[in-house]
Amino acid sequence: MQQFEELKFGHFYHIYNHAVGGRNLFYEVKNYEYFLKLYEKYISSVAETYAWVLMKNHFHLLVRIKEESDVVGSFTPDRVSNPVRGKITTMQFSKLFNAYAQAFNKYHQERGALFERPFKRKLITNDDYLKQVILYIHNNPVHHGFCKHPIEYPWTSYLTCISKQPTNLKRDTVIEWFFDRANFIAVHEQKIDRDGIEGWLES
Question: What would the 3-class secondary structure string for the chain be?
Answer without folding.
Answer: CCCCCCCCCCCEEEEEEEECCCCCCCCCHHHHHHHHHHHHHHHCCCEEEEEEEECCCEEEEEEEECCHHHHHCCCCHHHCCHHHHCCHHHHHHHHHHHHHHHHHHHHHCCCCCCECCCCEEEEECCHHHHHHHHHHHHCHHHHCCCCCCHHHCCCECHHHHCCCCCCCCCHHHHHHHCCCHHHHHHHCCCCCCHHHHHHHHHC
